[in-house]
Here is the input.
Amino acid sequence: MYNPDMHNMTAYAHLARTALGSVPAARAQVRGGPRNSRLKGVFSFYAAGNGSLVTAEVNGLPKTHTGIYAVHIHDGASCTGNAEDPFAASGQHFNPANRPHPLHVGDLLPLFGNDGFAVYSFYTDRFLPGDVVGHTVIIHSDPDDFRSQPSGNSGGKIACGVIEKTR
Ligand SMILES: [Cu+2]
Here is the structure.
């Protein structure tokens, strides 16, 4: 674990730079549903320390009231669905330890859109890249309130991608 003292902050910064210089262990190409056909992006999962460095770059996010979009790893293995829910097969939040939201392993940081574009990077020790391979990344239409059960009142699913091992 990484304590927030200066020595470990330096070690963490080094770890993050090292991870970004490597090939990601897993990746998800996300695509928008029928109502968001221009929405696409990529999430990369780098092995780093006791966890993962997650980076994402997304284009074509729809205009919404906040321009903030919840992101979760869902436990389903496919992005198929139906007219009512285009990504129904993505299932529920990935939550192997049966914790409340927002303590699910699959609870990620939200994206902040900029005229439809978002990019970010963060570190989490909730999972190793291999733990989430075969599950799905879901982008939602609304912000995550990090409180409501079971999924933060995050609105509909607007994009989905299956997390795949890269090598
Ligand atoms: Cu979700």
